[in-house]
Amino acid sequence: MSTERAELEHGMSTAGKDLSTRFVETLQLVADTTPQSRLRRASSPYTGEPRNKDEHGRKGIEHGRMAVIKWEQSEQQRLFCETDAFEVLYGGKAGGGKSYVQCQDALIYGLTYPHSRQLILRRTFPELQKSIIRTTQEMYPREFAKYNAGAHMWTLCNGSVIDFGYCDSESDVYRYQSAEYDVIRFDELTHFTEDMYLYMISRVRGANGYPKHVKSSTNPGGVGHGFVKARFIDPGIQNKTFQAKNSTRIFIPADLKSNKWLMEKDPEYAVRLRNLPEDEYKKLGLGLWDINDGAYFSEWRRDLHVAEPFEIPKEWRRYFAMDYGLDMLAGYWIAVDGMGNAYAYREIYESGKVITEALNDIKAMQGGDVPYEYIAPPDMWNRRQDTGRSVAEIFADGGIMLVKAQNSRVQGWYDLKEWMHPRENEFGEIKPRLRVFANCTHLIRTLPMLETDKHNPNDVAGEPHEYTHAADALRYWAAGRPVPTPVMPERDEYFPEYDEQVESLLGY
After folding, report:
1. Residue 346: how many CA atoms within 13 Å on its side-chain side?
2. In this structure, what are the phi and psi dihedrals at residue 416, rounded to the nearest 5 degrees?
3. By CB count within 10 A, which of 185, 253, 327, 501 is most buried?
4. Tell me, what's the pLDDT at 53?
5. Nearest to residue 248, comparing CAs of 78, 85, 445?
6. Distance of CA 458 to the CA centre of its chain
7. Cα distances (Å, whole numbers) of residue 310 to 319, 370, 426, 438
8. pTM score, two decimals?
9. How many other CB atoms are there within 10 angstroms of residue 492's CB atom?
């Protein structure tokens, strides 16, 4: 082990050299005694050959790691560690060793690149504590890695840091506003919202020249199922890096074959998966992405519910429905034709608007449209303590008379589901009565992500609250029993108008 030790000690302090001796010995001990951490001598998992680069002072660490640090991995897990793609998703079936390979790769990266910074995220801290943190505590040898429970972070012998964090609500991302990371890792990515994911991507930055990644692992299902599927699954490319807008991505499917250690230690795990309810088995056992059994609006299909914009006929009856708070103004203009088909054709979706700003923005956006009703939630009639006036009164002063919406949540959701349910129309086509113009992007984004309330399966889950605004506005409209456009009878060319009949009778 002398060659590896000498190279590991390259550029280290005296204290570091002493630690490196224990480091190599510890790794060899782990290799000999710990089944789940089977280490083997191997060439570089990144290129197939040992790297001899000494930029950033990482030669010794890297070559030392190449000599002794390499867990026995499946081809899928190996690809997860080796890929050069910026966005990486390892997911699919349960039991694929997703969390384990995340922890593996974090350690390998941290030892390869001195003073690098990584962040591993779960949606909540209890989930983080039970899974990732516990796994790292079992996996990382204390001879070269120290865990700070108060700060929730590992510090490696070469100065690299692995932080742990969570994003319980949308606003939690701002805790990382000034942070810089070389790699951010999402464990169970579908538990996060798309907005969380996109914001955290912006935290991957730095001028050290190290490779930058966003590496995620997940099963299908959850609030983020839709965006993860669209981002990684729908392109239909597996195990190969593909070019996306301003990014490179790869989807690596995981299955039980990727976790030989689990199958050796718990061969009955596959049997227990098969005993799950059918939908749950399709999601976890088969890793099917076309199923999101937790979605409340299971009727939603983009190909059926989204329509390309067209000019709304002037005679169609128009409605405006809104959900308003300082956190978000979500409003929709909806037109109903004479056959009872409706189109949400325009959207306003803004945050941080005071009452007068919201009022003026609505008036400016609607142009020449004159809605039959402006529908708003009942709390807009509550009088404010500071002024003694309600939002509804302020809107009335501004020329918009609001109609109080029915606020029975479950009934309102049922009404909306009826509008969304595909059925045969007057032309023999299978279509829903309510369709959404493609320009209503926030409604299209959030509606399919709403989940069923676990405590009341008839209701929509209130969290994440950020995803409920658009759907609430639509619910208020549906609960109001909107009236279709009156259909004028066609004139019989042989039947005279009323004035013509009068003229004939009076003889003039």
Report:
1. 18
2. -65, -40
3. 185
4. 36
5. 85
6. 23
7. 17, 18, 20, 10
8. 0.55
9. 7
CB 167, CB 192: distance < 8 Å: yes
Q: How would you classify residue 59: left for phi > 0, otherwise alpha for psi between -120 and 50, otherwise beta?
A: alpha
Residues pairing with 185 in the sheet:
120, 215
**Which stretches of the chain score pLDDT less than 50?**
1-70, 95, 262-263, 266, 269-270, 273, 276, 282-283, 285-287
In tens, the pLDDT along 459-495 reads: 998 877 888 999 999 999 999 888 888 866 555 555 5
Sign for the pseudo-dihedral over CA of 493, 495, 501, 504? positive
Residue type at position 360: N
- Residue with the two structure tokens 């089977």: 38
Q: Are 98 and 56 in contact (CB under 8 A)?
A: no
Cα 417 from chain centre: 23
- Encoding tokens for residue 472? 């609430």
Identity at 358, one-letter amino acid code: A
Helix axes 59-68, 14-33, angle to 10 degrees: 20
Alpha-helical runs (H) found in 275-318? 278-280, 302-305
Strands lying side by side in the sheet with 402-404:
306-307, 434-437, 342-350, 328-336, 317-325, 373-376, 402-404
Q: What is the enclosing helix (H) or strand (E) of 393? A: helix 391-397
Q: DSSP states of 8-49 as a string?
A: HTTT--HHHHHHHHHHHHHHHHHHHH-GGG-B---S-TTTSS
The helix/strand/coil state of 154 is strand
Domains in the chain, start-ordered, CATH in brackets?
1-72 (no CATH), 76-285 (3.40.50.300), 302-479 (3.30.420.280)
**Contact yes or no for 342/482 (Cβ under 8 A):** yes
In angstroms, the CA 236 to CA 385 distance is: 55
